[in-house]
Amino acid sequence: MEPTLLQTEVDPQVIADGVNLLWVLVATFLIFFMHAGFAMLEAGQVRSKNVANQLTKNLLTWSVGVAVFFLIGAAISSVVGGDGFSLTLAAESPNEWVGWLFGAVFAMTAATIVSGAVAGRAKLRAYVGYTFVLAAVIYPVVAGMGWGTAGPLTADGMLGDVIGVGFHDFAGGMIVHGMGGIAGLTAAWVLGPRMDRYNDDGSANVIPGHSLTFAVLGTLILAFGWYGFNVGTAATVFEVTESGELALASFATVGRVALTTTLAMACGAIGAGLVAWLKTGKVDTLYVANGLLAGLVGITAIPDTTAWWGAFVVGGIAGAQLPIVFEFVEDYLKIDDVCAVFPVHGSAGIIGTLLFPFVAAPGVVDSIGTAFAAQLAGVAVITVWTIVATAIVFGAFKAVGQARVSEEHERDGLDVSEHGVDTYPEFGKPDVATDGGSTDEIIRADGGEPNDGEIKMVTAIVRPDRLGAIKQSLAEAGAPSLTVTNVSGRGSQPAKKGQWRGEEYTVDLHQKVKIECVVADIPAQEVVDAIREGAETGEPGDGKIFVMPVEGATQIRTGKTGPDAV
C-alpha cells in the first residue's frame, strides 16, 4: 500500500495540536457567552430599580477580573499548584495563552456568581474590590489546590498530595461553582438582608424580581454555554501515538460527558419542580429554572466518570435540594441570598462532588470509602478557605462603611444612586408627538367657553398596558399635555395570589398608571371621553377617571396665571 498524502506530507502532531487548540478556543467562547446568561438571569431576579446595577456588576466582573487574573491570579494558582511562580505575560509561546484564557473564563464564572447573592444593597466599589481579590488570590488558591494550574486542562493539584488520594473535580463543580456559591452566601451574610426583607418577628417578606422572562432566558443561555464548560473540559481531541498515528484522546469518552451533562440538567429541573409542587401545590417556574442549573452544577465535577443512571441521581438530588436549602437559608439562617446562588451553585456543587464514588461507572473507583474521604476533605478545605477569605474582604469594607449603600440609596434603587440611570425610562409606547396641533381648529362640543372658563384637572388610574392608546387618543382630542406616574392600588379588581421561588404572597395592590391632565381651553368631558376610549378593555380593573376643579395655575417661565397659564 502506498502512503497517503496525509501520511507523507503532514505531521500528525501539527494536526493534533491545531485541532486541540481550536476546540479549547471554541469551548472558551461558549463559556464566555455564559456571562450573557448570568446577566439576564440575575437582572430578572432583582427589582427593576436595580437592573442596571446588576448588569454593570456583570460587565465589570469580566473586565476587572480577567485583567487581574492575567497579571496576578494565574501566577498565584501556579505557585499553589506546585509549578512555581510564572507570570502569564512571560509565556514562551503565544499558544500558551490559550490555556490561560480557558482557565480565565472558569475564574470569571466563579466571580460573577457572587454578584447575584449581594444584589440590591452592595456598593459597587465593594463588589469590584472583592472581584479584584477573588481573581488575584481567592479563586487561584482554590484552582491551584484542586487542579494545579490556572484551569482544568490539568488535574494535579496539591489536594491530592495532601490527602494521599486524588480529589476529583473534572470541570469545576466544587472548584468553580461550589466556591462561588459559598462565597456568595458568606458575602450576603456579612452585608445583611435587604431592607424590608424580614419583619420584626423574623418572618420573611417575599421581594419578587422584576422579570421572570429574563430569568428563564438567562437560564437557557447558561445551559447552552454549559456544554463548553463540561464537554469543553475534554480538551484534547487528538493525540499522537508512539507509532505516529492520530488517535482520540479525551474525546474517546466525550460522549459520556455530553450525556451525563444533559441528563443531570433535565433531572435538576424535574427534581426542583416536583419538590416545589409537593410543598406548594404548584410547579414554580423559577424553581424549575434554578433547578435546571442546580442539576448542571451537580454533575459538573463528575461528568467524565458518572454512569448514565448516576446522572439521573445527581441531577435529581441537586434539583430536589434546591427549595429545601433555599428555605433553610432564608428562614433559619436569615441570609438574604437574592438569586439563590448557594442552593444553585454552593450546595449543589458540594453534593455532586461528594456523590462521585457512589455514582461512578464500573471500574472507575477502587474504594468507595477512600474516594469519598478524598472528596470530603477537598470540599472541606475549599469551603473553609472561601468563607474565611470572603468574610475578611467584605468585613473590611463593612468596617470602614463602604460595603453597603445607604438606606436612602437602597430605597431609590441602585440604578439611580450608583449609576445615575433609569433602566426603564419610558412609561409606554407608541410615543406620541406632544404639540397636539393648533387648538384654534378644534370645534367645541359645548358651543361656548370650555369648562365655563374654569381650569379642570382630569385624573385617571388605568392599566399600564393601555397608556400608549390613551396618549394617542388624547393627542387626537387636542389634549397632548399630561403627567404620568407609576402607582399601585386596589379597587374592584380582585386580589390574586402570586409566587416567587415557591413562596406565596398576596397581590392586592395592582400596578397602575396615574394620568393627570389639566385643561382650560379643552372641555374636560372630551378629555374624559378620550381617556375612556383608550383605556377600556371591558374587564374589572380598567380604572377610574376623576374631574376636579383647579383654583389657580401659574406658568413658571412667563408668570402667566389662570387659564392662560394652562
TrEMBL record:
Its annotated compartments are: Membrane
Q: Name one GO cellular component term.
A: membrane
**Is Ligase a UniProt keyword of this protein?**
no
TM regions (residue ranges): 20-38, 59-80, 100-120, 127-150, 170-191, 212-229, 249-278, 285-302, 308-326, 338-360, 372-397
Q: Which GO terms describe its biological process?
A: ammonium homeostasis; regulation of nitrogen utilization
Q: Name one GO molecular function term.
A: enzyme regulator activity
Q: Which residues carry this modification: O-UMP-tyrosine?
A: 505
Annotated membrane topology is:
Multi-pass membrane protein
Q: Which InterPro entries match?
A: Ammonium/urea_transptr (IPR029020), Ammonium_transpt_CS (IPR018047), N-reg_PII (IPR002187), N-reg_PII-like_a/b (IPR011322), N-reg_PII/ATP_PRibTrfase_C (IPR015867), N-reg_PII_CS (IPR017918), NH4_transpt_AmtB-like_dom (IPR024041)
Its keywords, alphabetically, are: Ammonia transport, Cytoplasm, Membrane, Phosphoprotein, Transmembrane, Transmembrane helix, Transport
Q: What is its main location?
A: membrane
| Calcium recorded as keyword | no
**Where does the Ammonium transporter AmtB-like domain start and stop, copy by copy?**
22-424
Which function does this protein serve? Involved in the uptake of ammonium/ammonia (NH(4)(+)/NH(3)). Transport is electrogenic.
Q: Which family does it belong to?
A: Belongs to the ammonia transporter channel (TC 1.A.11.2) family.
Name of the featured protein: Ammonium transporter
Source organism per UniProt: Natrinema ejinorense
